[in-house]
Amino acid sequence: MGESKLAGLFFDAAIALLRRVRDEEAENIAAAGAAIADTVASGGRLFAFGAGHSSLAAQDVVYRAGGLALVNLLAVPGVVGVDVMPATLGSALERVDGLAGAVLDSSPVKAGDVLIVVSLSGRNALPVEMAMNARALGLKVIGVTSVAYAEETRSRHVSGTFLKDHCDIVLDSKIAVGDAELTHEGVEAPFAPASTVVTSALMQATMAAATENLVARGIEPPLLRSGNVDGGHEWNGRVMEQYADRIFFRH
């Protein structure tokens, strides 16, 4: 078997998007990293939220080797992944008014914390209200979204606004509406989405910026090590004990 032309084209598309995001979003990534470092330094907590496949990028920075131990997943039952049955229920729940408020009210978030809201389209009620309500509670909100959707689609929230309209900092993934990078003769639908690759890269770049910012302040970043290397479990145990009051995925 020779090389796949379409596979190569997908890598080309993903690499081009990553370069564009690196170059065009550098200042926003640095600002998001500084906001996270501010919160870590001041004793605040970090939360990440995403619905559907946007949840993958949120989960990617929670409890993982090389990641900040203080990032907690703000989970909404039924919308975290495709394991809910039927899977289409998750998409329907994203459009339910009031759900975000109920989740935040029963969560441990408080003023001064940071919430990262990941939503590719940013048009559904859940991420819009999550950002609106979080800011009303005094949280700093970082939105990770594709601004193109706000320019080319209509909001599904009663306000007519998008996620980007309710954030302190916006990270634009540059993903085109429809999230499919390839077309091919004989294939009716576009295919090969790149949003997970690009959005996860944005999240990790932001955490790297936060780590750099903390070091510049003389603060040891609360990072986790791999449990599959010698001493990793002991290291992580010490970090989790030191920051136990700011880590909620162990309770």
Explained architecture:
Helix 1 (5-24) runs parallel beside helix 8. The protein is built from nine helices and five strands. A five-stranded parallel β-sheet has the order 2-1-3-4-5, with helices on both faces. The model has no long low-confidence stretch (mean pLDDT 95). The protein is an alpha/beta fold and 251 residues long. Helix 6 (125-136) links the parallel strand 3 and strand 4 (140-145). It has helices at residues 5-24, 26-41, 54-59, 88-93, 99-105, 125-136, 147-152, 195-216, 232-242, and strands at residues 46-50, 71-73, 114-118, 140-145, 169-172. Pfam families: SIS_2. It comes from Streptomyces ficellus. Belongs to the UPF0309 family. This is UPF0309 protein QWM81_13395. InterPro entries: RpiR-like_SIS (IPR035472), SIS_dom (IPR001347), SIS_dom_sf (IPR046348), SIS_GmhA/DiaA_subfam (IPR050099), UPF0309 (IPR022951).
Which features characterize this protein?
251 residues; alpha/beta; five-stranded parallel beta sheet; 9 helices; 5 strands; globular
Global geometry: globular
State the secondary-structure class: alpha/beta
Note the total helix count.
Answer: 9
Q: What series of H and E elements makes up the topology?
A: HHEHEHHEHEHEHH
Spatial gap, N to C terminus: 50 Å
Uncertain residue segments: none
SS strand fraction: 5-15%
Bin the helical content. Answer: 40-55%
Rg, please?
18 Å
Secondary structure tally: strands: 5
Arithmetic mean pLDDT: 95
Describe the main β-sheet briefly: 5 strands, parallel
Organism: Streptomyces ficellus
Family: Belongs to the UPF0309 family.
Domain SIS: 36-219
InterPro entries: RpiR-like_SIS, SIS_dom, SIS_dom_sf, SIS_GmhA/DiaA_subfam, UPF0309
